[in-house]
Structures are given as C-alpha cells and as structure tokens.
Design brief:
The protein is α/β, with parallel strands linked by helices. The chain contains 8 helices and 8 strands; from the N terminus they run αααβαβαββαβαβββα. The two termini are 38 Å apart. The protein binds zinc ion.
Length: 225
C-alpha cells in the first residue's frame, strides 16, 4: 500500500489529498441514531435460558450496533454504556434532545423465535409545534412503520424470521422520532428446538449486521428527494 501511495505521489501529486482523505457523505453527519438498551441496574429484565439476564443481552446488542453503524459514518447516541438503571423519562429525553432520525429500543426474550419488531399502536396525528410529552410518537408513527418495514426487509434478507406488531409501550409513545422496539428471541429449528439463544455471539452478530443494513437503507431512503 505504501508503494502505491508513493507511486501516486510521484505520478500525480495533486491527486494525493483526495485519495488520502475519503470525504464522508454530507448527509451522514446529520443522521443521528439512538440505541436504547432496555433494562439495566436493578431492572434485569427477563432471564434467557442460557442463564444470562436480558439487561446484559440488550447492552451487548447496543455495543455491536453502535460499532457497526459508527463504522458506516452514522452518528450514534446510546442511552447506556454500562449496567445502569435509567428512569423511563430519561430514555425518551435522550433521543428527543439528540433530534434522532431513528431510535431502536432493544429487548431480548426467551419466548417465540427470531426477531420481533414493535411499533407504537398510537394513532397518527399532524406534527404540532408543542407535542404533548406522553403522546409525542403520534406525529411520528407513520415514519416508525416505515422504519419497521425497512428493518423487516433487511432481516428477511438475512433469512431471519421476523414478526411486526403494533403495541402499547409507554416509553415508545414519548419518542419524537421514528422509533421501533426490537426484541431478539432465540433462533429455532423447524421442530421448535433452540439453535441459538439471544446471547449467542454468532447469532447476535448476524442480527446486528442485518439491523445495521436496515438502518443504512433507512438513512438513504430519508436522503432521497
Ligand atoms: Zn425487555
């Protein structure tokens, strides 16, 4: 590689600065993703069959996604980086203050299989100047459905089973951005037996890669005129 740079410098010095600093697309600096690893501290969440607590699985998924998305030039804000308890209002304040373009709330479960996507069941409304705190999501739910659709396509592309449901989640309804809750369930064989628990490293890697691909697709959809 050093030789190639030297050759370029010798052959066309003017081209070197361009080659040395690959410009980031302008849009990437404006797209902020928030990752909310659910549970933490005293709130352990559910227990995975492997013995792992849900709060640890969600944090591991958040760390994987932060690294994958950050490597692709996405600005990522996380609600927690350690085994920390967070009041519910704080979980909404973080994405709302960051003006997030997408917020993923991460959960894990032992029940069901594959990936469960949840979008708020709140009815859509026009974006108002002052949004009532508890129902802020009503102005964004259409975009949340679009984010869930893009994530669904990416997960199916990775041959992961997916379900999408509308549900009432208090934390979700306070978010003023496209928001989807993602629950990672075990991977199962056709007979229902578990082939990978939600804390399995290879399985988590596959799920995180598919979610990251979905987020990148959502970012490019957003930047289209
Ligand atoms: Zn949970």
């Amino acid at each position: 590689m050093r030789w190639i740079n030297w050759a370029l410098a010798w052959m066309a010095p003017a081209a070197l600065p361009l080659a040395a600093q690959a410009p980031q697309p302008v849009q990437s600096s404006r797209f902020v993703a928030v990752l909310d690893a659910a549970h933490g501290g005293q709130d352990s969440g559910g227990k995975i069959a492997s013995g792992q607590m849900e709060k640890a699985v969600t944090l591991a998924m958040s760390v994987r996604l932060r690294s994958l998305l950050g490597a692709r030039g996405m600005a990522v804000v996380t609600t927690r980086e350690s085994d920390q308890a967070l009041p519910p209002d704080r979980r909404a304040e973080i994405p709302n203050h960051a003006h997030a373009q997408a917020c993923l709330i991460l959960h894990a479960t032992e029940s069901g299989s594959g990936i469960h996507l949840f979008v708020s069941s709140i009815a859509p409304s026009q974006i108002a100047l002052f949004l009532p705190w508890k129902t802020a999501q009503s102005a964004w739910v259409t975009r949340s459905l679009s984010l869930a659709g893009t994530l669904n396509a990416a997960l199916l592309h990775a041959e992961l089973p997916v379900t999408i449901e509308r549900t009432f989640l208090p934390g979700l309804d306070s978010l003023a951005c496209p928001a989807v809750a993602i629950e990672v369930a075990p991977n199962r064989a056709k007979d229902g037996s578990v082939t990978a628990e939600p804390d399995d490293a290879a399985y988590q890697g596959k799920v995180a890669s598919a979610i990251a691909a979905g987020m990148l697709a959502f970012r490019s959809e957003k930047s289209e005129p």
